[in-house]
# Entry
Amino acid sequence: MTPDVSTDWIEGGAAVVYQHCPSCIHTWYFRRSFCPGCGHAAPSTHTSAGLGSVHASTLVHRAPSDEFRAIAPYRIVLVDMAEGFRMMGHAEPSLAIGDPVRCQVKTIAGRALPYFDREPE
Ligand SMILES: [Zn+2]
# Structure
């Protein structure tokens, strides 16, 4: 089965899907039924273009499970996405703070997870 490109990776798709509040203009990730900023009950839902820049980066040496120990050390980043929300994902080992990145959903340690590659400027 090919993952749906408009369904969030958490729900088995191949996309990053974020939400936006039409009342207070707050933008967030992950899906909720109301705005975490003002409580508005009808947030809009959008598919991210997958572009952003690295806000923080760490190299994980002590992995949380046998599956992840097999790929350690591996890089985890926090990314400021172009649409205005921040998310975490696995990443290319050479990435550093400020690098432009693109997200794709990849199979990592047997799971479909967001992975950031360097985006040519
Ligand atoms: Zn709001």
